[in-house]
Design a protein that fits this description.
By secondary structure, this protein is of the alpha/beta class. Helices cover about 40% and strands about 15% of the residues. It has 12 helices and 13 strands. The longest helix has 22 residues, at about 370-390. The relative contact order is 0.16.
Length: about 400
């Protein structure tokens, strides 16, 4: 990577993260400690939920949520094919079947009508993804889940800090899961958080993340029965999905700076919107006026006249000019790992059409106006070259 390259993403780190990391190292408490508890409290509060359960990744959080809800072999879970693959993988982890439905062309989230049409006697949950952090339809999914008397699992890994009609993401489902990979709004390096108002579900997840140990009633906190006979007792088959105190310390620092981090990202998104709104070949993200976005990524797509091969050449041209960008996302049902489920091209035409034309542009809160302008100029140049070749 050249020092002049504009990267696709970059975490927003400061002296506070360093300070809390050093304090944690000096404390000698590197797992299941006060930093984890504080991080859980801060994220749950942001999501408007009573409980937070810190885990090693967003994927781990979704996996535990499905297990805690008792979803397993023979069950179906309705979800979107236009997402990062983890949202479907976790359904397969528990032996259930992901049932894909097509997406709305504006929100890029699963079409609520398509979800309702896909319900069968085997449907046990809806796993709804806020694609790129867009919360549209979440209230509709919640109403449908309530009508069907099945849980809504909210994959809000890309939506921390976003609200829809005044309601924070993470609070729409029976359970929500955030992710903290370095390209997210906040990062812990690796990490995730389960949020819920259901105490029994939260306790089940706390046990499952900690090798199936019983929940502590003695001092030692909710993460496990520290220094008691129960430490080597296991109530269920669990996992090592714990989040270390070092990761949690970074998370605490990020949450203390959260408003500043989110505002910077909103400013970058606004600048992109202003700069690209006059480019006819580019379709900008559609944001519902009742949503307040915290902005995970900035993904545009080329207009329908462009083929996937042309989009790929635009991306390659951007990269040659030292500008990081990527196609977000390849459709899950057409991935090699999903061939055994028998899906075919054309099955979800809107998702496939969108997927073949998306471009994730460089996006993080410390981008300068000059960098944004350079990205936009280069994008316009690459698009014009493709148009000339077609002519």
């Amino acid at each position: 990577m050249s020092e002049h390259e504009i990267p696709l993403s970059r975490p927003d780190l400061s002296a506070l993260e360093e300070e809390l990391l050093i304090l944690t190292l000096r404390s000698g408490r590197l797992s299941i400690g006060p930093m984890q508890e504080e991080f859980e409290r801060l994220v749950a509060q942001e999501a408007g939920c009573s409980h937070g359960v810190a885990v090693s990744s967003g994927t781990a959080g979704l996996h535990l949520a499905l297990l805690a809800l008792g979803i397993g072999p023979g069950d179906e879970v309705i979800t979107t094919p236009f997402s990062f693959i983890a949202s479907a993988n976790v359904i397969r982890y528990v032996g259930a079947k992901p049932v894909f439905v097509d997406i709305c062309p504006k929100s890029l989230n699963a079409d609520p009508a398509a979800i309702e049409a896909a319900v069968t006697e085997h449907t046990k949950a809806i796993l709804a993804v806020e694609t790129f952090g867009n919360p549209q339809h979440m209230d509709e999914y919640a109403r449908l889940a309530a009508k069907l008397e099945i849980p809504l699992i909210e994959d809000c890994c890309e939506a921390l800090g976003t609200t829809y009609r005044g309601r924070p993401c993470g609070s729409f489902g029976r359970v929500g899961v955030f992710g903290f990979y370095p390209n997210k709004q906040i990062t812990t390096g690796e990490g995730g958080m389960i949020v819920t108002d259901d105490e029994r579900l939260a306790d089940a997840c706390r046990s499952l993340r900690n090798q199936g140990r019983p929940i502590a009633t003695a001092p030692g906190g909710p993460g496990g029965a520290m220094n008691t006979g129960a430490w080597l007792e296991h109530e269920r088959v669990g996992y090592n999905y714990r989040l270390s105190e070092l990761n949690a310390a970074i998370g605490v620092a990020q949450m203390r700076r959260f408003k500043t981090i989110i505002e910077r990202r909103r400013m970058v998104a606004d600048l992109y919107m202003q700069r690209l709104m006059g480019v006819p070949e580019v379709v900008l993200p559609t944001v519902d006026p009742e949503a307040k976005m915290s902005w995970f990524v900035y993904v545009v797509r080329l207009s329908t006249e462009f083929a996937t091969e042309e989009r790929d050449r635009v991306i390659n041209g951007m990269r040659i000019h030292e500008i990081g960008c990527a196609p977000y996302f390849p459709c899950i049902h057409l991935q090699p790992a999903y061939r055994d489920l028998g899906h075919r091209p054309g099955q979800f035409p809107i998702a496939e059409s969108v997927s073949g034309r998306t471009i994730a542009l460089p996006f993080h809160g410390r981008m300068t106006e000059r960098e944004i302008d350079l990205v936009a100029q280069t994008l316009e140049l690459m698009i014009s070259r493709e148009s000339l070749h077609r002519g």
